[in-house]
Amino acid sequence: MFYAIALSNSALSKLLLCESLEDIEIGERVIIRYKEKKMKGYVVSKANGLNDFAEDTSSVILNETLEDVCQISDRLDYRSFLEPSRVEALLKLAKRFGSGIGQYFDISFPPGFDNYFSLFVESVNPLVNIPKMPYEEFKKLKNYRQYILNGVVRVYRDFEVNIPKPRSKEIFVRLKVSYDEISKLKFTSDQCMVVNYLLLNDCVKLHTLIEDTKVKRDAIVQLKNRGIIEFLDHIVETEQRKQTVVLEDEQKQVVNNILSYDMNKPKKHLIFGPTGSGKTEIYMEVIEKYLYFGNVLYLIPEVSLTEQTIARLRKRFPDVPIETYNSYLTTSKRVEVWAKAIKGEISILVGPRSAAFIPLKDLRLVVIDEEHDESYYNDSEPFYDLRDFLEFLPVTVIYGSATPSLGTLKNAKDKVYVYNKLTKRYSSSLPDVEVVDMRKEKRLTSSISEKLYKAIDETLQMKKSVLIFTRRKGFSRVQCAVCGYILKCDNCDVSMTYHIERDKLKCHLCGGEKNLISKCPNCQATLFIDKGTGTEKVEKELRILFPARNIGRIDAEVVDNPEKLKKFFDSLRVGELEIVVGTKMITKGLDIYKIGLVGVIDIDALISYPDINAPLRTFQMLVQVVGRAGRREKGKAIIQTYNPESPIIFYASNQDVEGFYERELELRKELNYPPFADVIQLMYSNLDSKTARETMETVVDELERIIKSEDFYNVNNNYVELLGPSEHTIFKLANKYRYQVFLKTNKVERSLEIIKKVISNYPGDWTIKVNPMEI
Predict the structure, then answer these.
(1) Alpha helix (H) ranges present in 532-639?
(2) pTM for this one?
């Protein structure tokens, strides 16, 4: 039997033809000998003869002759954990994005997988006396392969994980005081997390509370000693009932529409509605029906939203096994969750994009919340857009967003997806939005206008919280007041940002740091000014304006893991934090009803950024952050800008999402940009700028010649347009100079083949991205 193998941990975008006497499953992991080395790979196709492979497989086989066929020397699992449909989806993803085929299969397994579950052998024939033993020990037996080939023994991985000993007595926890009393009390960050969790979950098991919040038992005991919570030896009967929500007519219509489709004929759906329109309640209703037929994957854009999402799911489905999977879990926990998933012991799996590659058994429904978010695009090897992977999977998918990605919206409008639309908020109306023209408005600080200051003060007087959004972390950029020289990174072509808490200049690209200089390198002047606005600067100004208020800052400098971010949000939920300054971290899916005001400052630089996606990205960010205000009662948002005439500001302030999208789609259709054509970015980096430029120019010339010689433009409506070469927007990064060229095409797979064929003659640091986040 012949097998097409994708090499693990390899950038090779070809398959290897291999041979074995054994009947190996599609998706199995195997060991092969290639170039005199033992290498791990994945079986992606098999056939009885060299000419029997399907055309899409044979076209990417590297060694096509019998003399070059590799031998499969061993099998790693003796079964496949990947269904054939998932193998096919991974292959399609690899062909569309062009990274190494095996790399896409690698992310379907947790790191360290082989270190946790051993391979065993046991006899299945009563006439053969072979006791259960480790596979490595079994291989020492003479003719051990014959036992396997003849079906005398079974080889399998032992997935029995260490299960905690049964507790002699289960303890339940619930709040003992009312919400009004809680709002008057002070808590530590851990205590905040416990209180917030119990507000969402009512009466829960103590071990579940500790596992979900990751707090120490001491914090829980302290709350018990203060009389805020109580321990019970049984669950309170009234709390045992699952949460039910009465849907509005508009929501019911969407639910009925989704459920009207045959579950055995998967369909893709878009739920498009304003922030706070009750999309989550629709997800819950649909999930409940799908759980009768299989399992559910619930995708979120940010790991910090895990607790909030799981709390809602547990409240709605108290008796359903729910787990989370993400890169912040310990290696052992990730392996444990993965094993539960393939055994069918998880009904709902929650996580960011990495969770989508876990082979969850009997997967029937995928919910992708905030589907527009950039985090669903993997911007490192292997490159991919998760939305494309879901497109290839034969399961029902619900894409939900107030500001959907253009590709998803176009598919819905073209009736490729089912278009489900919500028009109003579920529990309150959209916030009032005021645009402040900073060219005319009086400023109390360099960042805060008088109008924003008054709005903050009024909101705080009403016992509501305030979110302030700014686009960058740190304090500010540093500029010479005499000659205008801006301090830049030595390794990258970007300005450095001053971080006042550490008294350091830092590059936000390479992470390089340096001390603040006393003299300008250009003119020797000693006078410097701070240019631009960062979170540290805004926080400092707010502390001056509101000295008696509790003010916090959320950015990557102070929040470097999901646990810290959760603690910030919990403090915000229970009222411990009154004003929070943050970057885009605060725009993602937050549902905190105490937020009465959102202030947006320093947005203009995002609008003017030289990138075709910048207008859309900025608009989405504005709509999302404005939507954090008034989730229960009507809220308010203030957008400070020096460019109030901008269409982005106009449409965002009027919450006119459809109007902006119609304009954006029309523009992109005219210019042949995604979603009407694909864009491939080809980038070359080199320590020498001249070498980088000349190499890229040579490659572009060759690309043009090959495309034209094959008459690519005129065959089957093929379309390719070359843009460039040009310097990358950030020309120098980590001491390397970068040149790029963009190809607009409607034949992305064929274009990738041509590109790879050309650059194979010019070894070096090449990067290929399809439809990158920045164009």
Answers:
(1) 535-545, 562-573, 604-607, 614-626
(2) 0.84
